[in-house]
Amino acid sequence: MRNVRIYFSKTGDAKYISHLDLMRCMMRAVSRAGVPIGYTEGFNPRPYMNFAMPLSLGIEGLREILDIRVEDGITDLEIKSSLEKVMPPDIRILEVKPPVQKASQVAFSKYKIEILQSDMADKSFNDAVLELVSRPELLVSKIGKQGKNKVVKYINLTEHIRDFKIWTSNDKTHVITLVLPSNPTFGINPSLLTDKIAEELGINPIFVHITRKALLDEKGDELE
After folding, report:
1. pLDDT tens, residue by residue, 71-93
2. Is the dihedral of CA 47, 49, 54, 56 positive or negative?
3. Residue 6 contacts by C-beta under 8 Å, 6 or more apart in sequence?
4. Rg from Cα positions in the chain
5. Tens-place pLDDT, residues 158-171
6. Closest Cα partner for 158 from 120, 186, 184, 196?
7. In this structure, are strands 174-181 and 149-156 parallel, antiparallel, or unpaired?
8. Residues 177, 111: contact at Cβ < 8 Å?
9. pLDDT tens track for 192-213
10. Closest by alpha carbon to 119, among 197, 210, 189?
11. What is the per-residue pLDDT for 22?
């Protein structure tokens, strides 16, 4: 048995597939493709599949990670070719190769946010957003867990935003790129920021489109 890392994209209508349904989808795809996947041990064996930091519903992913364990005798190229033939629309297999780092080493996610709005002039909007994320404190509420109970926690977004940039594209869409924490113990959904922007600036966006471009390690490099 050996470990294999599958890089895939999840775009278009597939962004509305929940993580649970994505797991089922990938299990069926692996089965239909005839990939000899390994199983966990114990009383209830199941296919060995591990997603690195699942995407939130409604967010596209350009380079998501799925780790599986396969039997010897099948090549990475054969796995990729077999899976490509059975994947549903909007989920694309990009690359298959041995993992270098553990999936648990994901520390951050790099996002692209596109906002179309007509409530403010382009420059005024960009300047206002920059002022917001430059504040010492920008509190948002986040649902967390305390034991078995759900609790509302408040976090300061500006403490966690890295590599923030904003500009206006040729089609008048505001484009934001940034890096946010995304690890097994703490993660921030970028929609917390977009909701806060709309609330603070008093705008009603025509659309908001969020894409995760890459999963990063502690150094800020793309996970391999």
Report:
1. 998 999 999 999 999 999 999 99
2. negative
3. 65, 66, 67, 68, 79, 80, 83, 93, 95, 96
4. 20
5. 999 999 999 999 98
6. 196
7. unpaired
8. yes
9. 999 999 999 999 999 999 999 9
10. 197
11. 95
Structural contact between residues 1 and 38, judged by C-beta atoms closer than 8 angstroms = yes
Q: Which amino acid is at 2?
A: R
Q: Is 149 exposed, middle or buried (0-12, 13-18, 19+ CB in 10 A)?
A: exposed
**How far apart, in whole angstroms, are the C-alpha atoms of residue 157 and residue 42?**
42
- Which residue type does 183 have? N
* Dist CA 19 CA 28 (whole Å): 14
Paired tokens of 197: 């922007």
Q: How far apart (Å, rounded) are the C-alpha atoms in residues 217 and 215?
A: 7
Give me the DSSP letters along 135-181. SS--EEEEEEEETTEEEEEEEEGGGT-EEEEEEE-TTS-EEEEEEEE
